């Protein structure tokens, strides 16, 4: 696991601040109260030029709450490109407010709409309830997205942690279906297996903020029946093949028991001919995406870094099957747009105010970051 002397001052500060929001007891209600307070602490005001709207999607006699962030300008005639954002929280925590720090930023800097899904939480609603809600939203969005000013042909699904799990599962469930396909998937420290992938699972079993025992707890709440643990809707890495999946950007944290889930997923995508890029956040912890949200820092990347372009993902231009570099992805007549990797990276802290993400070549088998 990461020792205190291995963490940057900023990362240690994030751990210390997070510790101030401990639940007063072990009840689920108090866990949610503490998590909501933590998220509020790290949420800045709504950026200028972004507006939000709350909506309810009727499904089978109930409603799925949705929150739409979009530029406060006239809607394009074809609708806004859209990031369908699925929040993290172990399938147990979080909601429409918890990830405003990244949803609003994406809307502002992508000049796109961002639709956040308030899916049902466990343990009140066990697997596959959360997945079913996300699928229901996509089924509606792919047909009637223009009702919210969204272009159904230009949708990327994104998420963090448990939300990345749901995003990858959604990509699996929708590949090959009629209608517009998802244009891409952006996963931040994803949980993609019922048992986290080694060696990171053991190396960082006791990491701050999220340990292996924490993941076991969350899984038990969401999927208490072990018979479901090989279902790809729960464990996307259990899928027999990943052919035909959307292009992927996967970001992981170095000191995270889930780190190697993301690495294995990218390897398998690439082996299946799917364009996929892997980014390792050196010195970072699971959940650190929130720690950079209270202040706008200088972009922590270098111009030569290869990264997937949001414009290319949203317009579904052909992408090189092995190289996710921007030079390999002609954007045609699409207007310039910040790339998704860059934008997500803005919410991540850095160790030295430069290069918070170190774009790495996917390690060969037998090698680990």
CATH superfamily: Alpha/Beta hydrolase fold, catalytic domain
CATH class: Alpha Beta
Number of DSSP helices?
Answer: 10
Per DSSP E runs of 2 or more residues, the count of β-strands stands at: 9
Average predicted confidence as pLDDT: 81
- In what order do the strands lie side by side in the largest sheet? 1-2-4-3-5-6-7-8-9
Sheet with most strands: 9 strands, mixed
| CATH architecture classification name | 3-Layer(aba) Sandwich
Described by the principal axes of the CA atoms, the overall outline is globular
Explain the overall architecture.
There is one protein chain. 29% of the residues lie in helices and 18% in strands. The chain has 369 residues and is of the alpha/beta class. It has one domain: Rossmann fold, CATH 3.40.50. It has a 9-stranded mixed beta sheet, sandwiched between helices. A hairpin with a 2-residue loop joins β1 (50-59) and β2 (62-71). 48% of the residues are buried.
What's the short story on this structure?
The chain is α/β, with parallel strands linked by helices. It has helices at 9-19, 28-41, 100-110, 129-144, 162-174, 200-203, 212-222, 259-271, 310-315, 340-346, and strands spanning 50-59, 62-71, 80-86, 113-117, 150-160, 184-188, 248-255, 276-285, 358-359. The protein has a nine-stranded mixed sheet, sandwiched between helices.
